[in-house]
Design brief:
58% helix
Length: 133
């Protein structure tokens, strides 16, 4: 199962890498120049439209490059994790027991284990209703 997961990560890393290259190579539009006309209304409308087009072009460039970097970094991460899952050997992890000598230490178990007498369950009758009026 681990190797299948690793192979899926490797495949997804390839897909993310291709998507990042497509993001970097995508055409995001061109620059629109401002024009001057004889009338003030046409000039103002055209210049506002040109400014909006330029802002949208810059925004699309930023988004495209941002997603390109995101896909590129995620593809490298998925590739490394997938390769690790495929190549990793099934050896048990050995944990070394840490031992330290403390001259005046008291074992924790000895400090809190006092002999306790067993307690028998106590039965109490339910309370009787009070018939006084």
């Amino acid at each position: 199962m681990r190797r299948v997961f690793g192979a899926l990560l490797l495949a997804f890393s390839l897909i993310a890498f291709i998507a990042s290259m497509n993001m970097f190579d995508s055409y995001t539009g061109g620059y629109e120049s401002s024009e001057r006309y004889g009338g003030d209304a046409y000039t103002g409308i055209q210049n506002a439209a040109a400014q909006t087009a330029n802002n949208v072009e810059q925004l699309s460039t930023i988004v495209s490059e941002g997603f390109g970097w995101l896909f590129l970094l995620s593809s490298f991460t998925m590739f490394a994790c997938g390769l690790y899952q495929v190549v990793r050997k099934d050896t048990p992890v050995r944990v070394k027991k840490l031992e330290c000598e403390m001259p005046y230490a008291v074992p924790v178990a000895a400090a809190y284990t006092a002999p306790v007498a067993p307690v028998a369950p106590v039965y109490t009758a339910p309370p009787q209703p009070n018939n006084q009026q």
